[in-house]
Amino acid sequence: MNLPGHLLGWFFWTREVALAVLGEVKSIVEFIDVVRKATKPAPGGVAAFRGQQNKEWKLQPGLLRAPQKHLHHEREMSRDLMAIHPQEFAADQTMFDRLVRMQHYGLRTRLLDVTLNPLVALYFAVQRAQSGGRPVDGAVWLIRAPPSRKKYFDSDAVSCVSNLANLSAIEKDEIRNVPTSYSKDLFNEVDAVDKLLQFIRAEKAYFRAQIDRDDFFKRYLVTPKMSNRRIIAQSGAFVIFGLELPPSAAKFPDTIKTDRIDIPEGAKTEIRAELDTLGINESTLFPELDRAASYIMRRYSS
Questions:
Q1: Residue-range definition of the domain harbouring residue 154
Q2: Can you give the pTM of this predicted structure?
Q3: Residues with Cβ < 8 Å from 112, sequence gap 6 or more?
Q4: Res. 7: pLDDT tops 80
Q5: If you write DSSP's letter for every residue of the chain in order, what string do you get?
Q6: Quick one: which of 125, 146, 139, 149 has its CA closest to 215?
Q7: pLDDT score of 8
Q8: Closest CA to 242 of 66, 111, 150, 98
Q9: Is pLDDT above 70 for 6?
Q10: The dihedral of CA 222, 225, 230, 231: what is its sign?
Q11: Per-residue pLDDT at 248
């Protein structure tokens, strides 16, 4: 089975998750009721939520979306940004920290923004969007990750996946194409893996050359440092994406599971108003001065 490069990321995600639509909601009360019922019986509960203003959009980080030139030039994009604004990254201790900052400023990365607060996800789902010139429905995704996929910012597995951003496209292909028959020792002797190890040891001097090949092909739900006001305001977290799994490979047993709640386009305006009365709006979720000013201007224009 040979898939075009631009489809590989989505192909892997669908093999990593079990997808289900929980239904359609038209108010906050209905939304909370669906979330409550969906999370109550789940082992470990729902780990995170993501709101998307178009329900047809895939759960992909910016780096995996078209055009694929961004994925091919991941290393160059991140290096260019750090070279132009080194002072902005001076306090960052790890590549994951740097990716979070790059994501914050709009650079496409292998991070997918999620939130631990379902109402924050609902806010993003009820923003206006069009497809083909017509308004579209939104959706909130409920993302469940087993314990093995829940990580913190200082996790060794997160360091491995984050530092892929320091490798060239050729070097990442070298790792992706290592035969599964390789032992862990042989895998760690591959040139691209050895280079990656040097980047990891720059963060963690104690790190041993015992990288597990499978770690590169998984998604992890990562709790970041609460290092900026927007992450705090949005109860933010991230799903970090590794390498695309070869189409011939079997999916991993400890998969991330997702469910979707649809929000019809006709209910978006009323739900936005309901969220505003609860203090969930642009001013509170984007605490920067310009966003607060924009929100105030709109409020007094209606």
A1: 5-299
A2: 0.88
A3: 50, 59, 60, 61, 238, 239, 240, 241
A4: no
A5: ----HHHHHHHHHHHH--EEEEEE-SSHHHHHHHHHHHHTTSTT---EEEEESSTTS-S--GGGSSPTHHHHTHHHHHHHHHHH-GGGGTT--SHHHHHHHHHHTT---SEEEEES-HHHHHHHHTS--EETTEE--EEEEEEE--GGGEEETT-HHHHHHHGGGGS-HHHHHHHHTS-TT--HHHHHTSHHHHHHHHHHHHH-TT--S---GGGGG-EEEEE----SHHHHHTTEEEEEE-SPPPTTSPPPSS--EEEEEEE-GGGHHHHHHHHHHTT-SHHHHS-SHHHHHHHHHHHTT-
A6: 149
A7: 43
A8: 111
A9: no
A10: positive
A11: 58
Supply the angle between the helices 95-104 and 74-84 in degrees, to the nearest 10. Answer: 80
Residue 48 to residue 237: CA distance in whole angstroms? 8
- Give me the number of domains the chain comprises: 1
Residue 9 has pLDDT above 70, yes or no: no
Report d(CA 252, CA 101) in Å as an integer.
Answer: 30
> What rounded mean pLDDT belongs to the chain?
87
Segment 213-256, tens digit of pLDDT: 888 988 999 999 998 899 999 999 999 999 977 655 666 666 78
List pLDDT tens digits, range 79-116: 999 999 999 999 999 999 999 999 998 999 999 999 99
Give residue for tokens 């305001």.
Answer: 233
